[in-house]
Amino acid sequence: MALTAQTVKHIQPAEKLTKKADGGGLFLWVHPNGAKYWRWRDYLAGKEKLLAIGVYCGPTQYDEKGAPLPSTIQMGLKEAREARDAAKRLQDDGKDPSKERAEAKRLAHVSTKNSLEAVAREWHHKNLAKWVPDHATRILRRFEMDVFPHIGSEPVDALKTHHLLVVLRKVEARGSLDVAGRLQQHLVAVMRYAVQTGRISTNLALDLQGALIVPEKQHRAALPLNQLPELVDRINNYHGRLLTRAALRLTLLTFLRSSELRMARWGEIDFERGIWTIPPTREAIEGVRYSNRGTKMKTAHVVPLSRQALAVLQEIHPLTGRFELIFAGNSDVTKPMSENTINKSLRNLGYDTQADVCGHGFRTMACSALNESGLWSKDAIERAIERQMSHVERNSVRAAYIHKAEYLSERRLMMQWWADFLDAQNPHTYIEPSEFAKLRNDSAATWR
Fold first, then answer.
1. Which of 31, 149, 280, 435 lies 20 to 30 angstroms, CA to CA, from 386?
2. Known active-site residue 219
3. How confident is the model over 35-60, as pLDDT tens digits?
4. pLDDT-based confidence at residue 396 (cuts at 50, 70, 90)
5. Is residue 360 annotated as a catalytic residue, yes or no?
């Protein structure tokens, strides 16, 4: 007799596997643990074939915490009969239902594996080793917020350039131009990975070039050089915390990034050689955001220190030398000074950090002075300053000729000239870079 829905529901397990026939080769297998599975038995080319149709009620499974997982989707009697009839039709067409099902599963798996989300996550995982955790998290978060919800399920070989552009336009429309630009770069990289792994033959994301609005370059506020004497005088006469004045002076002398300066450890300073070695990463400080940051390019970075820069460090060594951090916080020496310290102190000195000068603007001022000195070529200055800012040479041919000293001698000359130039500024008289160069007749002229 054919089964009924109620019969199937109330069949109880026995000590051994029992089989309840429905007709047309369809059976319900009832296991001793209570699991019930649909099976279809038929013959193909004279051989008995048994096909797994589906699960009526599988055994309860549990996660690692012991909580029951959602049960397997039930296939009722009606659905089981429909699946049996579909298998019979395939057999009537001379096809093997089991092979057809295996192929369907394979194609479904390939489709899922080749979705944009799957490829992007695979690409992301492959690159984790070369990214710091914060950066890796930001990249994946951008995809999860702005890409996956819209086209993440689409196979990469079905995507066109305009599909990618529609997603980027949504980000652009809300005013997040920088995020849109970075997502474009990420999509190019993901699609390149798809080409490399054989999913697609052409990287259509490359055609996105020029399609987005380019955000205006943010220029850091910097003073004209003729206002340097007043700036130097105000810093030297700063009446606030001694460490804050030292941080201002050291930033002006070295124009390093705020995080590189604030998170600095005394162990990074070599007073004898006049060298500051900033590591790729630093030991994280509990409760301090980005405290593990070292250099921007994640390679050890050597910074030559002028005599004046060393003097600043020697001046504050009695204050914080017994601690790990050079610029220890005022209330907690295990944590660094605030990330707003430099710009806040500049505002206290009477400067508008948006229009007049900010900590980032010190680099612009140094470049201008070095250029106007006439002692070095523009290319030499840019090359040395880029190294001072820990930018890694991206041109592989040119990079092959960069020696381990990282232009250290050249940079040392420039940094010392810049420090001496600052010292030469009288509060009431501005000395131009070219004039100071003639007065000094510095040996740096050999680098022209």
1. 435
2. no
3. 888 898 877 666 777 888 888 876 55
4. very low
5. yes
Q: How many domains does the chain have?
A: 3
Tens digits of per-residue pLDDT, 242-262?
999 999 999 999 988 888 888
Task: Please list, in sequence order, all residues whose beta carbon lies within 8 angstroms of the beta carbon of residue 98, skipping any fewer than 6 positions away.
Answer: 49, 51
214 lies in some domain: no
301 catalytic per annotation: no
What was the pLDDT predicted at 107?
54
Judge whether 297 and 390 are in contact, CB under 8 Å.
Answer: yes
Is the pTM for the entire model greater than 0.70? no
> Does residue 13 belong to any structural domain of this protein?
yes
Flag whether 104 is in a domain. no
Catalytic residue among 81, 142, 186, 257: 257
Residue 294 buriedness (CB in 10 A; 0-12 / 13-18 / 19+): buried
Which one from 401, 404, 428, 448 is the annotated catalytic residue? 401
Write the CB contacts of 305 (distance below 8 Å, at least 6 apart in sequence). Answer: 254, 269, 274, 275, 276, 313, 415
CATH code at position 392: 1.10.443.10
